[in-house]
Amino acid sequence: MAESASGLGTDLLPSWRARIRPRELPEAAWLEPLPEELTVALMARLLHVDERHYRRIEKGTAHGVSVTLITAIAQLLRLAPDETEMLYLWCGKPPPQAPPADTGEVPRDLVEVLEREEHGAYWCSAGYRMMAANRRALANWPWMEPGVNIMVSLLRGPGRAQCVDWETRWAPLLLAQLRRELIQAPGDGELWQLVDRLVADDPLVDRIWRATAESQPPAYGTTRPMLMPPWRPYTGGPVEITVTALVPVSRPDLRLVVGVPAPDVAPQLPELPELP
């Protein structure tokens, strides 16, 4: 249990218990006689746990409270969603996060964050589907448009031509990133479909996937060379960019990906082309 829980007072669960009348609980219908109030002893009996253990939970001193038991307590006490979250925290566990509804759109406040970013940046889904991009991203990566899959574009599509030393500095890192995500979520069918789409009928991608991807670091946070049209007047060649990704707490299904050129590339960012 979190150390801070015991400093919040010990009346949290007793106050929730006081709202419940045992005779109104279907879970207690088989018990006779029933007390007028939902006591600690009755709670422990209904939860099928040791009474001393439940007392420690109410006092905020229990350790290793299971998620299953927390869920059972919340159901028995008829807790509201915000109260259930508080119970999880009281027991030293992070509240479960319900997956946000995928509306296919980026919330306006996150679009504003994107528009304020001076470097090329875009929002994409956890499956690498591009959802929104700022003007500099569209100038840097002309193939980018809503709905395009970033991984497919960089490994098998038009983005591949922009990746300098693609076979050694891009493909292994991108595929290693996918491999790590599959290890973390082996049941993610969307990721497996993406991998199948990438390696099918492309012997080079398939060879890198099988031979070298597992030994490479993840792609985010690394610096790699890339050809980007707005930078040609300044560099005449590729630009070293560091690719970073951020995940908002409010939308863990989204990623803000930013490509930041090395500081010694040019004294200032190139001018953006006029909007049509």
TrEMBL record:
<protein>
    <recommendedName>
        <fullName>MmyB-like transcription regulator ligand binding domain-containing protein</fullName>
    </recommendedName>
</protein>
<dbReference type="Pfam" id="PF17765">
    <property type="entry name" value="MLTR_LBD"/>
</dbReference>
<feature type="domain" description="MmyB-like transcription regulator ligand binding">
    <location>
        <begin position="108"/>
        <end position="264"/>
    </location>
</feature>
<dbReference type="InterPro" id="IPR041413">
    <property type="entry name" value="MLTR_LBD"/>
</dbReference>
